[in-house]
Amino acid sequence: MSADALAAVFTVDNLTVIFLATLYGTFVGAMPGLTATMAVALLVPFTFFMDPVPAVSAIIATTTTAIFAGDIAGALLRMPGTPASAAYVDDAFRIAQKGAARRVLFVSLMTACIGGLVGVVILAVSAPQLARFAIGFSSYENFWLATLGITCAIFAGTGTVAKNFASLFFGLFVASIGIDVAVGHPRFTFGNVELMDGVNFIPAMIGLFAMSEVLRNASRGKAAVRLDVALDGVGSAFMGAARSLRNFKRVIAQSSVLGTLVGALPGAGADIAAWIAYALAKKGSKTPEQYGKGSLEGIAAGGSANNAGVAGAWTPALVFGIPGDSVTAIAIGVLLMKGLTPGPQIFTNDPVLVGALFGSFFMANIVMLFTGALAIALATMILKVPRSVLMPLILLSSLVGSFAITGSVLAIWIVLVLGVVGYFMEENGIPMAPAILGIVLGRVLEDNFMLSMMKSQGAMLDFFERPVAGVLGGLTVLLWALLLYRALRQLRRAGSTPKERPDVAK
Amino acid sequence: MHIDDRFLGLILVGMGTAIYLIARTFPLMAGIPYGPGFFPSIAAVGLIVCGIIIAVTGTLKSRAAPVIGSGASVGSAARGALLRPLIICLVVIFFALALPVLGFHIAAVLTVGAAAFVFGAHPLVAPVLALAAAFGTHAVFYSVLRVPLPWGILTPYAW
User: Can you name the residues that pair with B32 across neighbouring β-strands?
Assistant: First the structure.
């Protein structure tokens, strides 16, 4: 990392932003149901007014800590604060019930820090190499990369193949609203001049993640938080966690590397990284029977993998401009807003920013140790903040934040419409990640497709002629075939569902 | 709000059809059979195909395991689960309409106050929260970040 990048990381402004963002991320992450993505979506209006380095630092620090803090609600309430904690929530809760809640949380905090640091080292080493390779890519390769990105998102999506695809196509439709690139024709604007610029990405994200969450909470009604877990002392918990960490060296190393790799797959992200690392650790464990019943080893595996995944997700985002998860999708939007285009060129055009990004990642993981310890000490207080206070505040921040970005009431309407859509999608098993990738990558896909078409005068085969484009295209087509096979299997299985199963007709 | 997959599929088919019909009216590019309507058409056809698959899967599932006692349970809890999100949507519509006219302060106080009531806040807590949220948000966005939040009818008292 250059001296300029180091100087950009260690300014008072940047370090203050990192510190405040870790506090904010801890708080939102600890709240059950409030995801790391929502935390970042609500943060974006503030980053709009920051310089690029603190803006990126704020996003990184918030995500890193929110993913860890998801374990707080997981251990104390058996409700994962963010989906990334779901893999090992039973283990955390069982141990917490035995009176060692804080010990669990310290294990999770320390492994999160190690996972995050391993992730950022892999990112810092691999990203520039990949960028060097990707610098020769033309519109054909970029088109296939974007297509491969959304295809991976379908693969990793949590719904059925048809529902994952429906989500993606909805996202692609939203991306097509506004003036088109080729001939400048207004699409789906219905005469609205402001819509000609397209659906602004930030109100869209705030709608899908924050507004939909407010609606979901409203639907559930008032639920009092009941804590029936006895908390252990902070000091003894810390010492106990540090001691048990030594036993899990191999698991942590394995999960951190694995988490980074899984996180780097577009659409996979931290939650899937945690599930896979947890399963793999169980397979190689001497005590697999404890998994699910209170295995500290399982927590160490999942806890390090999900934070490593946070860093991993930045690799495709930085190198190819293809987001690894919803958070990096938002981050790409923020970078574009700052006039910076993620892609291989960013490594030569803005080396200071890239270096500062790695540095901020590093610092965020270190600062998290302190704010995380504070959160563990104050865990019960955080969880007792009533929903009736929190939800109206989130609602107002969503509306004002979106208005602040565009200075127009249209942003509020976008928040409302996409909030309702997001709420319906989640309630009906349609995952949101493919839609977000569709919204972010829709324009990239279309721009590169149209550019290639103009070059080739409409000849489709040119998309496969360059060697790398051919490989990427072939890979994408192969994935499509696999998806088709999976969809057909799901269809066949639906037809032969046994009548005894009452839960299928929910 | 959970809807039956058969109905969900039909909604998607309807949405896709509408998008497709509109996209067909877009002009083509000279010399290339692709134009502004190409990508929206792909999205539209995709939505239609997915809608059909979801509807068919839903039908097959319900045939294999018929829904016993179908239809949402109409209790006060179920009504509240529908009503509360609806009120929140109305509150947001009010905010969008009132912001330029009544100004940020009044719109925000009423919005936060109403939302707090929906979420079951104590009648004394809601107004305090509403005032604190409105003035706090204004201080951050208007005074610090310089976002031009409208004053509306309070313009003569603007600071």
Answer: B29
